[in-house]
Fold:
Amino acid sequence: MSDLKKLEEDILKAVDAAEDEKALEDVRVAALGKKGSISELLKGLGKMSPEERKEMGPALNGLKTLVGDAITARKEALHDAAIEARLASETVDVTLPVRAAPLSEGRVHPISQVWDEVTAIFGDMGFTVEEGPDVETDYYNFEALNFPEGHPAREMHDTFYFHPKEDGSRLLLRTHTSPVQVRTMEKGKPPFRFIAPGRTFRCDSDQTHTPQFHQVEGLVVDETTHMGHLKWTLETFLASFFETDNVEIRFRPSFFPFTEPSMEVDVRCARLGNEIRIGEGEDWLEILGCGMIHPNVLKSAGIDPERYQGFAFGMGIDRIAMLKYGIPDLRAFFEADLRWLKHYGFQALDMPTLDGGLSS
Ligand code: DAH
Structure:
């Protein structure tokens, strides 16, 4: 009997000492498994005398139940402890300061913002948005736009050329967005009404020029499109873009090979130190080039200039971004300075819309 008591003590000690469910299972198998210590003793009951069996039977069964219960209890305790440990390690400290989410950290570059604003305004006027490649052929960048070979106006463009190909032709980085005019028109049929914002390149670098910059081209072609439409379109765009009702523009005669007549457009402005206010004051600021599309350009695109006519304009996106948002130095646009971007950039979800406000 004292052997049995010793066995009970040993098993219960082992149950208590089991640190996890795996160790506890080992203890169970050693005691109650097929070849476990208690099971072996139970097997011996058959060989006992009836008196012995009467005494040992209940004692062994009692031990079996006791050990079984102890194991179940320990199992539950281990399970609860595991949950407690997990809860403790996964605690959320709600008193920690909130970390800024990536969305509120990021900024939309002012050029992207202005690009989107211009697209929203012309989109509302029924213009589609077209694209052309940054790497252009001489044909689309110059020839189709009525700059013949050797024309002096080509010299004004400070073109970046690639190495000549075997046939002598050279690809180039487009010097303006105007090549999208012919590229788009030759793909479709008039009437046309589109803008083409994009990257442009010229071998020029100083305070007011960067080798890469941005332009937006605009074009309308129909049977009766005239300069009055051009003036209205530009005034309406500029009023909307500068968010003022007082836009006043004037046309100055100019020259571009692809328009006839050609004009440059100035807007009325006031200069107050570094600040420029559009729509008031006595000064004029050059803002874009435009004109009536030259018949040769329409012919390049396979359009009959006897039947169709239209206007085109080209504007520097960087320039109107500087004017609208008071950005003094053009080069800062391309310097990727995060402090500058934090100051002049826009929140990612503040997308410009005409009803929601362009820049607010
Ligand atoms: N492509 C001209 C430039 O880069 C800008 C321009 C002027 C575009 C007149 C036009 C236009 O469409 O009609 O200097």
User: Anything to note?
Assistant: The CA atoms of residues 45 and 53 lie 6 Å apart. The pocket of 3,4-dihydroxyphenylalanine is lined by residues 176, 178, 217, 256, 259, 289-291, 312-314 (CB under 6 Å).
